[in-house]
User: Fold this.
Amino acid sequence: MLHQPVVVAFAYGVVGWHAPMAVKYVVIVAASLAVILVVYEVGVRRTRVTRFLFGMRTDPPAKPAS
Assistant:
């Protein structure tokens, strides 16, 4: 749900490059991973509504007492 639009958007721009296939692959994977991790951290984990929609507990896990 999160990864497909990000991967497709990066691939759309990278596929036209005049570079070896391995370079294109690494760029798409690295850029997509970075963006997906940020979107997940900021957009999914921080609000109750999105946590519920993604099937997570609505209350964030409690931090262990030190």
Remarks:
- Residues 17 and 24 are 8 Å apart (CA to CA).
- The chain is about 65% helix and 0% strand.
- The chain has one domain: 3-53.
